[in-house]
Amino acid sequence: ELALDGAGLASEPGDALGLWPRNPEPLVDAVLQATALDGETAVRIGEEERSLRAWLLDKRELTRLARPFVAAQAERSGNADLQRLLAPEHAGEFQQLLASLQPIDLLQRQRADWDAESLVAALRPLQPRLYSIASSRKLVGDEAHLTVAHVEYDIEGQARWGAASHQLATRAEGDTLPVYIEANERFRLPAGVAPFRGFVQERAALGGTGRNWLFFGAPHQRSDFLYQLEWQRALKDGHLQRIDLAFSRDTARKVYVQQRIAEQARALHEWLKGGAHLYVCGATAMGKDVHAALLDAVASHNGGDRDAATDYLDTLARDGRYARDLY
Question: What pTM was estimated for this model as a whole?
Fold first, then answer.
């Protein structure tokens, strides 16, 4: 929960909070050690000059691999396996490499001849991270509540972090963070409908009377049912009419949100026909599976015509009644 007192940052439900992250200092130290470079070396890129350590802390991506860095590492290390993965016929393996490793992993595994300026030039500029705001200012005031998974994993006995999530998770009360509001005009609350936490809060504050239905999916109910008491309270208070849950790792048969949609296809179709707005928020892969389930749900009640179902969902999207916020 971040206090925005006096920051002049106004948001609406559906907006995101942008954070300019700072790389973890142990990660920067590991990069300097792996490259045998002096962090105090001055590096000029364009008109900007700062120490190598400062570039690595605040200006360069160290938690996400990109092709230019992999290519430069392959050339400077002369590693044949890395060079092989850059070929078009190995695109699948290369994508797996990008998804599973960070720059530090390549630097530690293959000794390469780096100089400070070349290293900074090969790394991508550090980009802001966007987090959907999970609160309504009408209820919580000048604050922004975020729902963040602290990205931590281990490769060969060494800790790895997500830059922004680690920064958020390790801040103490009273610390400040460089943030801004990223407006999302295509993900807005229509009158009387509030499918997510910020929307539910907004609806409660405005006295909305429209029905709300939440499909919620996560691996485990015990540890991952985020805001459980709030959803239960919303059901009791009438701010939420229905909730369908899918916890994929709690039973032998994995159950996902798309299966709950299939089970409730008739009711969901009736809600849409009655003018409901539909929001999908979560990981990109989940969004694809949910979209496919929605197509099946619509097609199952229009005679099985999937082309017509596709046109129907496209029309909902154009009319602002089907919005997706995926990452």
Answer: 0.67
